[in-house]
Amino acid sequence: MAKSMCRAVGALVLAIAFLFPSAISVGAQADRGIAGFAPVRVEAELAREQKLRAIPDAAHAESNLRHITSEPHLAGTEGSHRLAEWLRDQYRSYGFDAEIVSYSVWLPQAREVKLELKTPNTITLGTPEQPIEIDKDTYNKDAVMAFNAYAPSADVTAPVIYVNYGTQEDYRALEAMGISVEGKIAIARYGRCYRGIKTKLAEEHKAVGLVLYSDPQDDGYSAGDAFPRGPWRPMSGIQRGSVQYTQIYPGDPLTPGVGSTANAKRLAPADAKNLPRIPTMPINAQDATAILENLGGPHVPHSWQGALPFTYHIGPGDAVAHMKLVMDYQQRPIYDVIAKLHGTNDGEWVVLGNHHDAWVYGAVDPGSGTATMLETARALGELVRSGWKPQRTILMCEWDGEEPGLIGSTEWVEANRAELQAKAVAYINTDVAVAGPNFTASATPSLSGLVRDAARAVQGPHSAGSVYDAWLEHAKRGQTELSGIARTQGGSEKMGEAPVDALGAGSDFCPFLDFAGIPSIDTGFVGDYGVYHSLYDDFYWMKTFGDPTFAYHATLAKVLGTVALRLDEADVLPFDYAVYAAAITRATNDVISRANQLGIQDATTQAVADASARLTASAAHVAQALQRSGYASFDAATENRINHELVSVEQALLAPGGLVGRPWYKHTIYAPGSYAGYAAEVLPGVNEALDRDDAATFQQEAAALAAALSRASVRLDEVAQLANASK
Amino acid sequence: MAKSMCRAVGALVLAIAFLFPSAISVGAQADRGIAGFAPVRVEAELAREQKLRAIPDAAHAESNLRHITSEPHLAGTEGSHRLAEWLRDQYRSYGFDAEIVSYSVWLPQAREVKLELKTPNTITLGTPEQPIEIDKDTYNKDAVMAFNAYAPSADVTAPVIYVNYGTQEDYRALEAMGISVEGKIAIARYGRCYRGIKTKLAEEHKAVGLVLYSDPQDDGYSAGDAFPRGPWRPMSGIQRGSVQYTQIYPGDPLTPGVGSTANAKRLAPADAKNLPRIPTMPINAQDATAILENLGGPHVPHSWQGALPFTYHIGPGDAVAHMKLVMDYQQRPIYDVIAKLHGTNDGEWVVLGNHHDAWVYGAVDPGSGTATMLETARALGELVRSGWKPQRTILMCEWDGEEPGLIGSTEWVEANRAELQAKAVAYINTDVAVAGPNFTASATPSLSGLVRDAARAVQGPHSAGSVYDAWLEHAKRGQTELSGIARTQGGSEKMGEAPVDALGAGSDFCPFLDFAGIPSIDTGFVGDYGVYHSLYDDFYWMKTFGDPTFAYHATLAKVLGTVALRLDEADVLPFDYAVYAAAITRATNDVISRANQLGIQDATTQAVADASARLTASAAHVAQALQRSGYASFDAATENRINHELVSVEQALLAPGGLVGRPWYKHTIYAPGSYAGYAAEVLPGVNEALDRDDAATFQQEAAALAAALSRASVRLDEVAQLANASK
Predict the structure, then answer these.
(1) pTM recorded for the entire structure
(2) pLDDT-based confidence at residue B676 (cuts at 50, 70, 90)
């Protein structure tokens, strides 16, 4: 699924991250050093990495993507099963111990998705995407019809109200205008937040249905030339997508918290809290025109006007719509592929993952990730063939059912939680691996230094410099454009580091980080990409616009391989908790000041402040102790214990009971916002309680947060003690 | 003509003015006082004003406007002549001594205005505005075809380049992209700056022609519902307008600086510096679509994308256009109406003015002004009938030829310069008097307090409060929306005064202030108005959208009448030079700091700073002296001398030789920007020299500025001395 944000919002997030560069990483690589490696082992690691980075190859990636996109492969269909089997065989051919792990999950398929305008004239809408002559794949009759996964079957007829992006802010504006969607069909444009949040808000405001459309202002002709002239969404393009309330919990709706194994206890669908109760369907801009042109009522606020060629109105008016959805819900099998490269120490795992199911062809989402992962796997396999044995075990996972609701990853994490929490040192995700030339990364702050170091180690595909150089340059350009301030001369280094964002929602790192507390990374190359979740996200698009030479695929395979090798071979895991503690302290300071403004200033906020200060001190002690040690002086048992403790810090940040109201989400520092889009909500429990002015919940969440921070400090103190003791 | 700005820019200007409210006016009315009136005369003045304000009437204004808009009346046509005669007769019927003053001026009429797309297909463009069934006036065959006044005849064929708004900034962006308009036809959208500046820039960049169009983003369907559903520009609507280089000098191109009387020496047209040398024509958004859709070349920068439903490209590409203009240039007569209400003191004049010529019907521009002026005149006439005799002589002027280039006012001011400079105490202009409900005013800073006081004295048409209350409220709302900050509770008064802008370009105050140094005011009610200079600016539009009850017409007539009465009856003219000096000091501080940044810091900047400080001190002395006097203790001769000196301060700010490069513009503090749109350029000589990095001109202009400020101080010192001496 990956996140889709309008470019402006994306740029803003980028800029904010960029304005507050991380503190200088105490664990960062010194002159010729590598974070986490004893000096004596650095040279061998650099040689190994160089060997690995020579292997990934554009032609291989292209041929992989051509195969991956040879037919539609929606989760729960035979196309997806066939792709899983092919992937398993590919991993096996690279020397991996690969198998398919299947779960039976509650999964809909669409039988009928119908939309009509009833008045002023009857017009049949819900038109499919048009084939385009130059791109033969767009003629395939097996392309799945456009629908929103987990919308219920329904048959409703009602006047229509335009709700802009359908965000909380938009409903507040409607309320101020005295307009209600109760009993109405809402029409919202895509963008600004996850479509499941749009559905939840429409449901909460008592709409009887929701129509989602792609406004050309957001990813169509206003953004740039539309497909096939350019990479943006044509008027006929439809964004499919799930409306599962993954913000409450992702995965199989009937088995929250446990794997959907044969014997798992399943909820009745009526009791599943992550299922929408009102129908939602996606349409293209052409169909939206027919509806929006017929809305009456007041003229919209200026920022609600999109790029269709008429004045937008809020409604209601002449437009009465009829929506009919017939959904076929069944237990259906999904097929994860789990491929292992066994290490010397099988008790520690480095996990990489990417999904393989797609809405239609999914050349970008997720095919570019799958093609890239295969090249990383081939490279690791060749290293093994040439005599290397991984220190830790490397898992490469190809998830099924990500599009309907992160199902394959969630069920696997839930089913293997205890083992993962004991063994997994980190999870590295890619999804939209290549949609353009701009490198982007999100990570738990402990891993931001590792991502930057890996990007520094890899040559950029079309520039003299490294991936990191281009990444920093692009961030600076965005920053400059945003602020309107001319770039300062020769100020590169002074402008901070390339931005690593917080992990939000929208891909398979979610169960790893938010449910199991595994430190995570998500990365890829982004760019001008308007065919998200449409028929047109296909091989032709990639070959023409996204990555014509496939150089970015090969480059990302090298980045992933470098990250994997460093995590695999490090003596002491390269987790930088000083950076993490600094990020947490900024966030707790913000939350305490918000609470103070609302009149809350008591023992709980003091406890959060104290715990945050203690965490900072503990992280500093660890950094000092490890730096003094030079990573060189530990015996194997101590090293193991240090690594075990380092990994456990992230798990210490989980609240055993989860967040109030959504217990599946256990992480106290990061969660997807309940209403706030794809972006990560930082300190979700306390911040959302403050959003709601809910002082009682705030107290409860603040206590849980302080406890989590204290547990993390204990783990860090343990590391410092172990490191100091073995000097 | 009036200025037309896109709403966003308008809001910004408003906000800036609002952020810097004028200093508290020392001459402002005290408890029951009126600025400039001896206490003993206040009660009579208030009674007179109350009587006057009871007279203007919505039904009269409506009937006047219906007559004014009964046929098209472009300058130089019989329609305009007929209207002038009717106006003369109306003023006579109110008791004015009214006459027509005619000038013979160099004026074009359009015989053929043709535009074709030659490739990729031949399409005939230049389509006229479509009639609209509900609005019968739109069927009139006599409606003037759309053209740009003072475009030359020409016949050119060339590829097309899109230049966004065609501003200096846009050409800089094109240059950075390596794209030139040399030998090409440029297509620019209306907005951001005066169309004559767009033409000048296209000419300077060696385009062979310029096509101007109205993008729906700026005043069409993106802004709100288009006519006849709403007040905004329909796809077929065309903005006519002059492209005379009024920024160099306005009026008859052949007689710069002197009146176009029978014996005036005339330039050869080839020597007139305010005439464009490349053809320009206006088209509607429908025709623009045909051209813009066929442009190739790079995709435009994001802010250049308008609201037409496709991706904008810069060109060139397939689109080759053919422009043919046949213009009939002749000496043609124009007809000003000058109506006088003689006062006791015929040696001092209060001048009001408004133009009567229109592009087509001109219900808003200028009909609303003309209908309003007539009601003010009727009210003043009734006061005279009931026994009042004005103290000063009141002139009410109806200008012809404003649309092609402020011709009627400019020629009259040039022809009567000496008498005006000896007698006129102020000029009050209205043009777009009513285009909506929001009061707006521009004025020389000395008069901003008078405008605010008059607005406080007049009841708003649809609210319990005064015109001033609604004006301030609207400004605060704009400010709040702009800043995104919630309004502070009960903070009305703390947020400053309602904003009075600086006088820029685009209406008949220009020759009075910029050429003759007469203190001036321009005022009216504005709002959602997208039919500017089109066929649709007609009676139906006004009756349906602009002012259905004509209450705003009647209200503005009361404001104009109040301003006129106060200027007419004041003992000491209510000119606040403390406010003016503060505005000048802010501007000189800015200019000195700009100069310093460019490395200029010498005797000249010091002289400006000194002169500015001296002006502030002199203005403070005047304020103290007048306040102490209570306006009550002067003998008639002293009062006359004081008033004469007060009026002469504005003339002291003129540089006898005018601005470098455009000697017609003599005012050192205000001028229309040479390139910077409709907005006033403050301290134009020095600022534009700095814009061009022209240090030598800067020195020259700074010296002229310092001399002007010093002359103004001498006049103010004279006032203070007279006031103090007579205590």
Answers:
(1) 0.90
(2) confident
Contacts of B195 (CB under 8 A, 6+ apart): B148, B212, B241, B242, B243, B280
Q: How many helices (H) and strands (E) does chain B have?
A: 22, 16
Average pLDDT over residues B45-53: 98
Strand partners, B501: B442
Tokens of B13: 């200007």
- Going by pLDDT thresholds of 50, 70 and 90, the confidence category of residue B2 is low
Written as six digits, the tokens of A353 are 């993952």
Residue of A nearest to B229 (CA): A311
Q: Where are the beta strands (DSSP E) in B490-549?
A: 520-526
Single out the residue of A458, A88, A410 nearest to residue A242, CA to CA. Answer: A410
Token pair 């061998």 in the structure block, residue: A44
Class of the B106-331 domain?
alpha beta
- Assigned token pair, B138: 């739109």
- pLDDT tens by residue, B193-226: 999 999 999 999 999 999 999 999 999 999 999 9
Beta strands A97-119 and A320-341 are antiparallel
Tokens representing B161 are 């380049």
Peptide bond into A269 cis (omega under 30): no
| Substitution target from A310, A314, A482, A597 for chain B, most B beta carbons within 10 A | A310
Q: Mind listing the pLDDT tens digit for each residue in B129-154? A: 999 999 999 998 888 899 999 999 99
Closest by Cα among B219, B167, B168 to B188: B167
Question: With 0-12 CB in 10 A as exposed, 13-18 as middle and 19+ as buried, what is B127?
Answer: middle
- Residue B718 has which token pair? 């004279």
Contact (CB, 8 A) for B494 and B320: no
Distance CA B394, CA B96 (A): 9
Q: Report the topology of domain A55-105+333-375+388-569.
A: Aminopeptidase (3.40.630)
| Superfamily of domain covering B54-103+333-569 | Zn peptidases (3.40.630.10)
Q: Residue A222: its chain B contacts at CB < 8 A?
A: 305, 311
Choose, from B49, B402, B681, B688, the residue flagged as catalytic.
B402
Q: What is the residue whose two structure tokens read 């009745």?
A: A268
Determine contact, residues B382/B56, Cβ cutoff 8 Å.
Answer: no
From chain B, the residues in CB contact with A299 under 8 A are 224-225, 230
Q: Tokens standing for B277?
A: 């040398």
The domain defined by A577-725 folds into Transcription Elongation Factor S-II; Chain A (1.20.930)
Hey, what are A573's tokens? 């895991």
Place of tokens 């006929």: A236
Question: Both ends of chain A: CA-CA distance in Å?
Answer: 48
> Chain A contact for B222, CB < 8 A?
yes
Decide if pLDDT at B190 tops 90: yes
Distance CA A188, CA A176 (A): 18
Whole-number pLDDT of residue A344: 96
Cα–Cα distance, B572 to A503 (Å, whole number): 71
Q: Selecting from 3.50.30.30, 1.10.10.920, 3.40.720.10, 3.40.50.11930, what CATH number does the domain A107-331 have?
A: 3.50.30.30
CB B390 within 8 A of CB B72: no
Strand partners, A323: A115, A156
Q: Which two tokens stand for residue A611?
A: 């715990």
Q: Which string of b and e fits B302-335 if b means at least 16 CB within 10 Å?
A: eebbbbbbbbbbbbbbbbbbbbbbebeeeebbbb
Provide the residue type at A147 as one letter: F
What separation in angstroms does the CA of A179 have from each of A18, A211, A295, A318, B203? 39, 18, 14, 16, 51
Domain residue ranges in chain B = 54-103+333-569, 106-331, 577-725
Measured between CA atoms, how close is A14 to chain B, in angstroms? 18
Rg (CA), chain B: 25
- Residues in B closer than 8 angstroms to A224, CB to CB, are 299, 311
Q: What percent of chain B has pLDDT over 70?
A: 93
